[in-house]
Design brief:
By secondary structure, the chain is α+β, with helices and mostly antiparallel strands. It has a domain at 1-71. 16% of the residues lie in helices and 25% in strands. It has two helices and seven strands. A hairpin with a 2-residue loop joins strand 5 and strand 6. The radius of gyration is 28 Å and the shape is elongated. The model has no long low-confidence stretch (mean pLDDT 78).
């Protein structure tokens, strides 16, 4: 489970614990445990919104689980955090000192990341 997945409801910042999928052919809303991966046609819901979910008139709500445990960090999340801390702790290399003036190389002038090409004035 990825802790960065939040509830799909507008303005809700709670972590997602369940996944909602609509089965249009059966007129059913299927609510189950949080899917391993976020899919384009599913909705992640927090525990509060998952418990309060209602379906449109004529539709059924199929609840595959009624217990929504809080997501725990996965080893991938912990490894990513450790890598970020290591990267932030590495000493940064000093940038090469800038040259005093623009570099001139065979008809072009360089100023930082820009270059000016000298062309002939033929008309």
């Amino acid at each position: 489970m990825n802790l960065s997945r939040k509830c799909s409801k507008t303005a809700c910042r709670q972590p997602a614990v369940a996944t909602l999928t609509y089965v249009y052919s059966d007129r059913a809303a299927v609510l189950g445990p949080l899917a391993t991966y976020a899919e384009p046609h599913t909705y992640d819901l927090c525990a509060e919104h998952a418990t309060r979910l209602t379906a449109p008139r004529g539709w059924d709500v199929v609840r595959l689980t009624t217990d929504y445990p809080e997501p725990q960090p996965s080893t991938d999340d912990l490894l990513a955090l450790a890598d970020a801390v290591r990267e932030a702790g590495r000493p940064r290399q000093q940038a090469a000192p800038a040259e005093a003036g623009p570099a001139v190389v065979a008809g072009e002038v360089r100023r930082g990341h820009l270059r000016v090409l000298r062309g002939s004035a033929e008309g």
